[in-house]
Amino acid sequence: MAHYLLLKQPDNFRDLLHLGGRHRTQFLDEDPLLLGKAVGLVMSGGCLFASAPLQSELLRPPHQQECFLTTSFSPSEKPPLLLLHGALGSHEQFDLLLPLLEPHYQLHRLNFEGHGSALAVDRPYRIEHFAENVLAYLAHHHLEHIPTFGYSMGGYVALYLARHHPGSIGAIATLATKFAWTPEGAARETRMLDATKIRDKVPQFARALEARHPGSGWEQVLVRTAEMMHTLGAQPTLQPADFAALERRVRLIVGDRDATVSIEESTEVYRALPKGEIEVLPGTPHPLEKVSPERLARTLLDFFGQ
Length: 306
What we know:
By secondary structure, the chain is α/β, with parallel strands linked by helices. Helix content is 35%, strand content 16%. It has eleven helices and ten strands. The strands form two sheets. A six-stranded parallel β-sheet has the order 6-5-7-8-9-10, with helices on both faces. A four-stranded mixed β-sheet has the order 2-3-1-4, with no helix packed on it. Strand 5, helix 2 and strand 6 form a beta-alpha-beta unit. Helix 3 crosses helix 4 (153-164), helix 5 runs antiparallel to helix 8 and helix 6 (195-201) crosses helix 7 (203-212).
């Protein structure tokens, strides 16, 4: 499957070349319907990345669509803030949080490959692959050292980026991010990712997932997420030494009613972080939809405003 990156400025592709060095670039003739000047298509393997909707079907690769649904911001003095969604989620998870943060930050959010409207790439779900999605987004928007809030799996991706691509990510806040991955724990989590059981026992959740993932289909998201969890259980992507090597501010936020992530596992990672903080939200379960957006916004503004 081809992978395209739409660029408004041809010079931008050089940043992406540094990410892997395996991209072939082709420039198109001027198209007044789209950008009014030449654009670049960077071939690398799975999605179409665009900062504006494609208006010319001649430029749209077959069966492709935008992976990143981004907002165009007018110039301002507001600092940027990146939001990374969780497993089974999409960037729409942050819709209730946006109006509380937008007065203070230029917000950036994206769909990981295979989530939301982003089509899946011909490879399994992996933290490393989602990190590549973020790096491509940051290169396209000329962002670096960006403060980042990650919910659940999104927090894990942010910490992976901080460890392996330290120039990409700034201060990090995570919410409900699971760190204690074991084979037994992965098996317990994946038992809840059965599409047939969800459809029969929780039809409202099934309909919500179907609406959330038009790109690859919600059932495929479940299958790929379960496989990724088993891989994490067998070999966690982040080890204790990785947390100890993170020389940046990190706040771990966990709810005291979270049935997926324990306060104990969060505390263990907090103690390993050189510049770590931990916050326990009272009466708060795991699903982001059940977390008070006002409460969460206050803690994020407090942390990133320091």
